[in-house]
Amino acid sequence: MRIDSVNTNVKISNAEAPKGNENQVQETNLAQQAKVNKEALEKKLSEKEQDQMHEVSQQIQEAAIEQANRALLGYNKRIDRAIHEKTKTVMYKIVDTKTDEVIKEFPPKKIQDMVAKMWELAGLFVDEKA
To answer: Which of 20, 53, 71, 79 has the largest CB neighbor count within 10 A?
Structure first.
């Protein structure tokens, strides 16, 4: 993936800037330029490139969980990763490998179910039958 740099010159003139605050003017210019560069970068990324970035991110997360699970072997624990069906939130569980008992779950599934129900009541889910 190749992204050319975007050069935009966003400047506040000295007439607009308060006297004696040259550092603030420079910081403001840099912040505005960073915002413009970010927006331009996001526009340049095609859907295919965004999908590739998402896939790489997924692979990194899976590798991190595998590494953590190897470290947890001696403690008879493992980490399970799941995605909540309705909210699409990533959920993690720490599970005892001997008893398959869930020791910790975050964010809790009950909370995600409540969020999904609130979204449903607020009409934020699109009816797929239409």
So the answer is: 79
